[in-house]
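Usage example:
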Amino acid sequence: MAKVSFREQVLQVREDAIVASVNRLLAEKGFDLMTVDEVVADVGIAKASLYKHFSSKEELAAAAMVRVLDLALAEVERLRQQPAAPLEQLRAVARWTMQVQLAGEMPSLPSQNSTLRAALVAHKGYMDRLLRLSDLLGEWIEAGQADGSLRAELPPEVLLYTLFARACDPVLGLLKAAGQYSDAQIIDILLLSCFGGLSTGQEAQAAAATKRVRKA
Amino acid sequence: MAKVSFREQVLQVREDAIVASVNRLLAEKGFDLMTVDEVVADVGIAKASLYKHFSSKEELAAAAMVRVLDLALAEVERLRQQPAAPLEQLRAVARWTMQVQLAGEMPSLPSQNSTLRAALVAHKGYMDRLLRLSDLLGEWIEAGQADGSLRAELPPEVLLYTLFARACDPVLGLLKAAGQYSDAQIIDILLLSCFGGLSTGQEAQAAAATKRVRKA
DNA sequence: GTCTATAACGCGATAGAC
DNA sequence: GTCTATCGCGTTATAGAC
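Running the assembly step on the lines above writes:
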């Protein structure tokens, strides 16, 4: 039993090393520019060994996403320990995702139609964590809409999707590449544009848009 | 001269047909899922003929982007004929891009690192149009910041990038896929979340965030 | 000559042999 | 763990049809 445990530990360590490499490469180059050969070269193992752990390139990406989702879930659980208004909790989560992006640790995957999307929605570990995270964020969203700090005219899913989308918004990469703002400034800018919107004087605008939105 | 003109016309018509097919396939399946074989099958020409017009798959995508940028420029020029506040002009442009998306005519390209990005920034026709569009939108953005309808705390480029990013925001696709909102409702929802932000009561929030943003 | 059809080459993902 | 094979796809080259 000690041997088995040891062997399993070795496998686990290797798997962690693979996922770490994949995560870094995905953040650097994106899914299509990352080749499996790069991964095995980076980890220092043979291609066949990698395919013992993961059955496809898509599985590799899914493992990296599972990793960041676990980190996100841990961050959310940590935030739940501290009492704060729902809006502030959501802002803190958004801030955390931007920090991950700025640290170069957010995998960049094609968000639209692709074989990868299909593989992800079919991936149980990924979907379980995504749904759990959605549930946790959904609580804050509904609480925020109830206490008036979040727009109740917007369907809760829209708030959820928008927050998820900001976790890989290309605008952050553009600002980072421009190089004229500090990381802290970029985060403040994007939090403001996301939660506060682009325009001032929301009253008239919100009233005008509410007409149709309410019909949902 | 008539012969040359006729031949050129034939080439032009074929090129238009190619770009139209590419545009549709890009909107349907995205760049990586679209194969060159599909394109030639759809147009009904031989592969070699296609490569006479476009030297690579990336060039095909660039041609499709040039097409939508030309449509966008035409729409902006049309809007400039009609007097309206800068904020309303920008909202109208954002609305137009969402209509294009909902009509299934917006090419979906990987927005992040990829060979395609490199090809696009090196593509003169694409970059010329993109810069021209940026200039035109920039005028409205600065005017909107000057008249107080757009947040002056945000750098103008941030507003520009954010509008561009909304033109291919995955949130629209998610709402469309959910199927529970009409096209008009989706547009109103996204305009509100983009220009109005997710939260209500922007005063305190804006004041808090402005501290650091201003340091830029 | 220009189009079409088809084959061929390179590269990367995947799988199996040793 | 290395090596080799296959397959898909982008790309190029070849050969035939009008």
